[in-house]
Amino acid sequence: MEGARPPVITIDGPSASGKGAVSEFLSRKIGFNYLDSGLLYRLFGLEVLSQGISLSVLADDWDESKRLVNCLEARIDGRKKVNQNVSSSAISIVGSVDARTEQAGAFASKIAKMPTVREALLDLQRSFRVNPGLIADGRDMGTVVFPDALLKIFLTASPSRRAERRHKQLKDKGIDVSVAKLERELEDRDYHDSTRGLSPLKFLEDSMIIDSTDLDVEQVSFLIEKKLGEMLED
Ligand code: CDP
N or C terminus of the chain: which is more exposed, having fewer CB within 10 Å? Predict the structure, then answer.
């Protein structure tokens, strides 16, 4: 008889809403694995750039996307064996380009529209679902990648608070960009991510919405843990 599949908590939401910080904090606290799916899209994009692959080839050639995912898998495999977590120190895989910059995010958003790319990344994302469970953050974790998730969260925050958070994150890495410019760029990316035909960012009826504008990481994590506790009691 097939055993129960490891439980998944999905955390979807717009750019810089705190998904990554909350997922990392909570995954450590409850001992779950963590999938940062956005990082996979960013890394995939950097791989496309470093190998000089044209967007038209990428859009049409299913095998090319699969080949790129194999390249990515080879690079993150060692880390996966440690804790299934592609940590931020794994991100500078192609020289000096940092996967966390807004340019890398915007390029990720551009290629994330392509069915070839999304399809090629599906199995890799699902391979993170191992015991004792997984916290997966992204745009389509609850809708497409793990539709049978135990708990689905939609995490959001005001655009200005999200721009402030991203500003601080980049500043800590020595990258200085104006908050106003970041806010425009994030809103632009959210627009593309929410209006694309394939796997758009969208709120699900069965999701719990959390607005983190005035909540810190621990407060958001507390709400999620509380909800989990209530579900397990039922
Ligand atoms: O950190 P931030 O929320 O700004 O972005 P991210 O989660 O690193 O994702 C970068 C880009 O990858 C997003 O803007 C999406 O276009 C794309 N992405 C996606 O399409 N599906 C996912 N599950 C995760 C990210």
Answer: N
